[in-house]
């Protein structure tokens, strides 16, 4: 719930006394943390000692111990900042401190309860109406290990008086919301609100679906939920893997510090452009092409591209056997291909079948008397043919192992693509698609688009995997058991690097978290459906911000991916990001795009409405002067690059505070001030343009400037009038 505005004055006497008391507790916790660190280091040393036994058992133990010790140390080391952030005082006088991890004293009594444990739930859930025996909730703010501020929340003032509990501070939430924004998202562990907490602690089974307007904390909740799941079912989710998917690479780097700050390092974060091994796409196709690629309309075309004879393969097979010339022409070879693929539709997996079919077809070309006269001839013929290097070479050329990237690049030739397209695509579509794939992906000269990633994944499925030669991925620890003496000691870093490699090839996950889910195309849902085929899910999104032109179609694709899993639905209703003035302005576009939608309430008023500016440079300068933190210039897709170079000198001079970003990449991000350049262009750029503009207008926490170059006499007017229309 909203709290009164925060005071910035120095702490008074009562507050100082309370702070000293809390400081004593925090000091004790940090001393204890140091002891825990010493124990972890001693445990690690013990692990290394075991390896000196020189047998396999010792090595296995060593490896397990060193790994576990390193995980503990990493978790303990990431907890310096704000380790203790809360305290609950109960009716019966019990005091419970809440923190990022659980810490116990030497008697095993809790000094701090982990925020994810059931005993901490009251910190987030207790309200004056439903107190859960809590009299006072205190938020403790620390810088490093130093207590700097307390904010109390009384749930039962009468009881507090009888327990002689002092009340200090005036609103941890407001203090958190008004702090300046930097390049990275912060955790919200000290101020998670009740409706958010319910979503964080939603059951680990089925699919938890979290909706809510801009700034309602959906991303924050999703990340805290990942930490919650890992804490409560560590074995299941650490070994099975938690995947977090965000819309863009910029977004992923914006959120990537949150889980480590909560002591969790094992979840895999990927953008939609990174869901396929070996591809890091960041570029978007223009809206019409993106829609074509995302809709599923290309599925039959991809199927045909995989099944067809690859261009450039030999059109004739020729061999001699006992003086007989055996020949198979192109039509016969095509027949063979069809027959083989009829039995095993994945060409990369079917090469052995193709080779057998080729031998069989060649055998049938021998004169009948030769085949009948010598009954054992068949086996000899088979071996003889397969042993020949020119036969092997032919098979490699006729039935090459292909990658998805090669097939898509092959479709970069309009004539080839037109053959596969048949009546599924018109000429203009063939031309546009071929142009978008021509020369892509080879040596990164021209990279694939984000919209190509699901097509590549689909192709990889259709092609199947070639039988793999054994490599070191198969046995992560094989190097540990070579020879009888200890040749080397694997460090924890080695093991994490190995585990990372294993993550890269992971084909499915135990839990999949999808952020900005409203934007996913049906084809992207198919990729996620495969990665999450055995997973439980958390899906986070806001239909009103959808960039996919047909939200119904996207929702249907999501239902297919989720199958018959039970749904747990949560709606977040408070916008914590935007000032009330900024959100009131942006909301007119939400109403235009989705008149029926329920919009969140913005809790913070600054008294400063969005402002209209004609000149981009002066709007940017003004924004930089008006706020302490970040400024985002948000443009249409087509003008981001030009705007970035136009503002290049300012970006360089602003020391990381100024970024230029297109409205699609701005998804999920936020800035203290936003300059939205040419809103009409953003709106007109795609069928979902009004929604995209709504996204752009809801990125600012404090100041919003609408910049319409050459917009004439309205010049520097504020647009408060427009807001209230
Ligand atoms: N309980 C909270 N305490 C402190 N800050 C909060 C809280 N909830 C949300 N915030 C802050 O509000 C801002 C918006 O949160 P977040 O980005 O998670 O919202 P969102 O719903 O994902 O927004 P969008 O849909 O626009 O991407 C962030 O700065 C976040 O830290």
Give the SSE layout:
Blueprint: H1 13-51, H2 56-77, E1 84-90, E2 95-99, E3 103-104, E4 110-114, H3 121-125, E5 134-143, E6 146-154, H4 157-162, H5 172-178, H6 194-200, E7 207-212, H7 218-232, H8 234-240, E8 242-246, H9 249-255, H10 258-261, E9 268-271, H11 287-294, H12 299-307, E10 316-321, E11 324-329, H13 330-343, H14 351-364, H15 368-373, H16 377-387, H17 389-398, H18 404-410, H19 414-421, H20 427-437, H21 453-463, H22 492-505, E12 511-514, H23 522-531, E13 536-541, H24 551-562, E14 567-572, E15 574-579, H25 580-593, E16 601-604, E17 611-613, H26 616-626, E18 631-635, H27 640-646, H28 648-653, E19 658-662, E20 671-677, H29 679-684, H30 689-697, E21 700-707, H31 720-724
Parallel strand pairs: 2-4, 7-13, 7-14, 8-9, 8-12, 12-13, 15-16, 17-21, 18-19, 18-20, 20-21
Antiparallel strand pairs: 1-2, 1-5, 3-4, 5-6, 10-11
The structure holds adenosine-5'-triphosphate.
Adenosine-5'-triphosphate binds at residues 173, 176-177, 186, 188, 191-193, 196, 212, 214-220, 542, 545, 576-577, 668, 670, 698.
GO biological process, one term: recombinational repair
Organism: Actinocrinis puniceicyclus
Domain UvrD-like helicase ATP-binding: 191-579
Instruction: Give the CA-based shape.
Output: globular
Distance from N terminus to C terminus (CA atoms, Å) equals 29 Å
Total strand count, please? 21
Low-confidence stretches: 1-8, 470-505, 713-725
- Mean pLDDT across residues: 85
The SS-based structural class is alpha/beta
* Small-molecule binders: adenosine-5'-triphosphate
Helix share, percent: 40-55%
GO cellular component, one term: cytosol
GO molecular function: 3'-5' DNA helicase activity; ATP binding; DNA binding; hydrolase activity
Region (Disordered): 1-25
Domain UvrD-like helicase ATP-binding: 191-579
